[in-house]
Amino acid sequence: MQTVAVVTMVRDDAFFLKAWLRHYGEMFGRQNCYVINHGYGEEVAELAKGCNIIGIPGDPHKNFDVKRWSLLNNLFGGLRRYYKHVIVGDVDELVVVDPQAGVNLLQWLEKADTDRVYTPVGLEVIHRIDIEDQPANDMILGPRRHVRVAPHYSKPSIVSTPAKLSRGGHFAQYSKLHTPDELYLMHLKFCDFDAYSGAMDRRNAVSAEVGVSFKQASIGRHWFATERGEDRAVFEGFAELPMQEGFDLRAVRRKMHRSFKARGDTGFYEFDRPNYKGQYVLPERFNGIF
User: Fold this and answer.
1) Cβ atoms 37, 10 nearer than 8 A
2) How far apart are CA 54 and CA 50, in angstroms?
3) 3-class SS of residue 125
4) How confident is the model at residue 220 (pLDDT cuts 50, 70, 90)?
5) In terms of pLDDT, which residue wins out, 223 or 183?
6) pTM for the complete prediction?
7) Which of 5, 131, 226, 271 might form a disulfide with 259, Cβ 3.0–4.6 angstroms?
8) At 64, is the pLDDT very low, low, confident or very high (cuts 50, 70, 90)?
9) DSSP-derived secondary structure letter, 24
């Protein structure tokens, strides 16, 4: 049985797909990467050559995220019969192992137990446009060194046992919480000002085609131009986040475990997701991971 497959769905987001391919494709081999090409995008197909590309229609429709996660659940559920672990998530989400552990993600998974779901702590990589002027096209960590804790992106993203994930991948139908100290999920939405603006333009255009509210579309508010805000103001605001000393997130994991509980009668499990207001400088050992 192969060690790991990784699954994502993408529409047009070349900047994030390139980072995803650098990180996962080079580490796991593209033959173990599964890219759902929403809308049969030519650029996506070209960039993802060597991966398992699954093209699907890109016609605008309601309940987009519900349908997307129904597809992803069925796909990774099938792949799990052939792989010990399956990583599933959005194209702007990358699971990493702290280099301090002395192994990369593949080496970590080769020794990881297979009867569980792993939930890395979510970190949002933020572009401090006031002090970070280097491009992040070929490498993100290094040119970008600042992160904030993002509980919303502490997702059950490594599935190594039968489990269903919720819309958005935020919750799992799995009654235990495994948060290894060395695992993180890096969310890249805010890692580059220009990439952010371009992605938001594309997503706003898609939501305009659908012609319904964000509630009817079952997708995040940021897909809608009316909910977007002013891009530069968003990034300038990162400088105001209080700087935290060091890089020790054990207290974050403890809070996750203390609040872990059933999510009503849905069969899913959740933990509290407080709004952490600070930012951290990533230790230099993370530079160049992707």
Assistant:
1) yes
2) 12
3) strand
4) low
5) 183
6) 0.90
7) 271
8) confident
9) I
At 63, the pLDDT band (50, 70, 90 cuts) reads confident
Cβ atoms of 35 and 14 within 8 Å: the answer is no
**What angle is formed at CA 122 by the lines to CA 119 and CA 124, rounded to 5 degrees?**
160
**Distance of alpha carbon 212 from alpha carbon 148, whole angstroms:** 32
Q: Do the Cβ atoms of 27 and 9 come closer than 8 Å? A: no
Side by side, the strands of the sheet bearing 52-56 are 52-56, 33-38, 2-10, 83-88, 158-159, 117-118
Report CA-CA distances (Å) from 277 to 124, 131, 207, 216, 238: 12, 19, 30, 30, 10
Burial degree of 142 (CB within 10 A; 0-12, 13-18, 19+):
middle
Q: Name the DSSP letter for residue 172.
A: B
Provide the residue type at 107 as one letter: Q
| Strand pairing class (121-126; 183-187) | parallel
| Residue 85 tokens, joined | 């672990």
Contact 242, 278 (CB under 8 A): yes
Q: What is the pLDDT of residues 130-154, one digit of tens each?
A: 999 999 999 999 999 999 999 999 9
Position 157 pLDDT exceeds 70? yes
Give the number of residues written for the chain: 290
Q: What is the DSSP letter of 279?
A: B
Tokens of 158: 């490594």
Q: Rounded distance, CA 281 to CA 268, Å?
A: 33
Closest C-alpha among 66, 62, 19 to residue 189: 19
Nearest Cα to 14, choosing from 188, 133, 155? 188
Which residue in this structure is represented by tokens 């009817």? 216
Class of residue 25 by CB neighbours under 10 A (exposed 0-12, middle 13-18, buried 19+): buried
